[in-house]
Amino acid sequence: MSSTITQPKKAPKNSYQIPPNASEHQRLNRQHELIQEIMLGKVFHSPITHPTQILDVGCGTGAVTYYLGSTFPRAEVYGIDLATILPKPNKPENVTFVQADYHDLLGSEEPHIAPGTMDFVFSRLLISGMTTWPSYIRTCHALLKPNGWLEIQETEFPYYDDSGIVSEEWKWCQAYQAGAKAKGLDLSCAVKAADWMREAGFVDVRTKWYYWPHGEWMADRGHEEYRNLGNFLKREQPRLYQAILSNLVSGMGYSDEEVRALQRDVMETLEVEEGRHKNYWVTFGRKPS
Ligand SMILES: C[S@@+](CC[C@H](N)C(=O)[O-])C[C@H]1O[C@@H](n2cnc3c(N)ncnc32)[C@H](O)[C@@H]1O
């Protein structure tokens, strides 16, 4: 079993909206715990049995990669990310991190990431970096063995409250969506994933969604498992959106003052909590035998 970090020979070409520094790593690790909390202990939903090769795409800090490595000690588990992943002392022996661009999975320098080799391909929260969803999903289909599973977990962009979508008129959301589109991102990827998977040839495609709540209101309505995530998102999301927004709208003709006004709009629109949420979609499907 290997435990190396494979570095790319050529420089990765795409860049993510948030720098992979210590505070971002802390945020991702905490978010991982809280996603597991709302899923009542689950990390993935695919019915995986006795896998021998697993790939975690855009693995971030490797929280899911570690989980998969220790859950399936007989499998080789690969985590791919553009950023360098610094392994922790408790890294399972069967985990290998590969620094590569997920738009070019088949071109990675890791010889084990090859067509027909994977039992499970997992990805989570690639919404702010992935620009080629349908071809990425076709590539995952090619990487999987027959009967292998692909699972995609993503948030859907608009904000809802109890009456429906509330963010359509928000100025920062309009700018955010336009900026994302100009950069080739698809903020509807969460809801399109199932169709993309079927088009790529996956069968038994299933979806499940969870609340991505802004504040504690879900817990106050009896869903205690959402309390910590709600608090965390209320604290973290405005700052995160302000940072991503200024990257997304760069080069679109906004003055610094206009960008600052949009950032203030983020804070103001996200002041309300009751009923406020986005949706978090889990989509999984099987490559036919
Ligand atoms: C929001 S984080 C999610 C990390 C992890 N999947 C999780 O759920 O904790 C997105 C990750 O995608 C990575 N990323 C962005 N663009 C990438 C690319 N072109 N190739 C590989 N990784 C990329 C970033 O470095 C970051 O670690």
Automatic annotation (TrEMBL):
Gene3D superfamilies: Vaccinia Virus protein VP39. One of its GO terms (molecular function) is methyltransferase activity. Residues 1-22 are annotated as: Disordered. CDD domains: AdoMet_MTases. InterPro entries: SAM-dependent_MTases_sf. It holds the Pfam family Methyltransf_23. It comes from the Eukaryota. PANTHER family: METHYLTRANSFERASE, METHYLTRANSFERASE DOMAIN-CONTAINING PROTEIN-RELATED. This is S-adenosyl-L-methionine-dependent methyltransferase. It comes from Imshaugia aleurites. The lineage of its organism: Eukaryota, Fungi, Dikarya, Ascomycota, Pezizomycotina.
